[in-house]
Amino acid sequence: MENLRNRVAEKINKCLNFCLKYEGEYKYSVLGTTFDLPESIDKMELDSLLSDYINIDYGYKIEFLIRTDGESFFHEREFSDERCAVSISEISDDMCIKILLLLPDKQLRIPIPTRMLVSRLEKKSFFDLLRMFYRHLYSVTVEEKGKCGFVFNNVMQIAKASLFNVSMLCGENYSLVKDIEEGERISRNIRLNRRGSPDVPHRVYNDEMVQYYMAGSSARIPKVQFLSYYNVLEFWFDKTYNDEKCAAIQKIITSPKFNHNNLNHYKKITEIFRFGKNKASENELLQSLLEKYLDINDFKNFLGQNDYYLNNNAHKISDTKFSLTDSDALLIRKLAKRIYRVRNAIVHSKESEEERYFPQDEKFISQEVNLVKYVSEQVIIESAKVI
After folding, report:
1. Cβ distance 205 to 164 under 8 Å?
2. What is the pTM of this model?
């Protein structure tokens, strides 16, 4: 694909011309000297519309471009099972080529003094320099063990699920890049915990819920973090409530005791909707969600490792205190009440409201972020589909 080689050479020359234009008579020749383009360039289909995300399809493996925020530390990670291998690493030379071709000319300038650039060019390849100066851009690669070829959408699901697992377990926030300008926007992240090492994902998570979760992981302001994680919970409110009511109705009408000619039997159905009320309060919706998705034993372990939630009851926004001796049902009621009251305090600022959020409450909200983040992770995991 000579045309592609020419396009890459032209972009490299443009970049170097931008960077070296103040050097006067100094000319830097690219082709045939420093830069040996990888042979794989002849097989690359950079304009393929396989996905909304920037990727390279190698046949038996697919590399996606990902970005991390400016405060996260990058760690190379590899994990595999009998099906596939997943790696998070620096971008490949092939991905460097794709980034180079996608970059607008105005962004081609490498942010380094000219003489230093010349010195580094003598020691490093041009693609090493790209990796150095686009250091917040990395790759997640999914490789099929049998090398028989992938169903593309399945690979993308594995990639997304892997990034969620790494974010949840390691506190490193990555997201797939849709366009290079999006990749250039650097956000920030506060790492709240580190609890283990990821594995190849066995579940596919709801993409929209994960986006809310990642927004919370990237935010710096505690109240923004809290609301982003609360968005994860709110996402399933209506579905959980409706599914619960439909299941209860189905249980009634499929019972052999149900007589469709007996009007009294229909009263049981109307009672399900709370005597004609067809919409529960948001606190009730949150409680229904927790009843469905929260692993109560895991929650008790969480409380046992975070005694702040067992001892603290002094703050005006939420005086709900948990106890390990509480029944399962009581723990869920308390959890729903506590999360919902903090949410209301952040969202509402009416003068008449006694429970309002003020900037001086930030330390308290930071503690509540850990709680709602934990719950949002449980909901994402438990509502996921097994691969």
Report:
1. yes
2. 0.69
362 neighbors 272 (Cβ within 8 angstroms): no
Helix axes 93-102, 126-133, angle to 10 degrees: 70
Burial category of 360 from C-beta neighbours within 10 Å (exposed 0-12, middle 13-18, buried 19 and up): exposed
Give whole-number Cα distances, 77 to 170, 263, 357, in Å. Answer: 11, 63, 39
**H or E stretch including 78?**
strand 77-80
Domain ranges of the chain: 2-201, 234-386
d(CA 24, CA 239): 67
What is the C-alpha to C-alpha distance for residues 249 and 258, in angstroms, rounded to an integer?
Answer: 11
Averages of pLDDT over each 10 residues, the chain, 387 residues: 70 71 48 54 58 81 83 81 91 85 71 65 69 81 80 86 90 82 44 60 89 87 90 82 67 76 72 55 87 93 88 68 91 93 82 62 81 94 88
> How many Å from the N-terminal Cα to the C-terminal Cα in the chain?
37
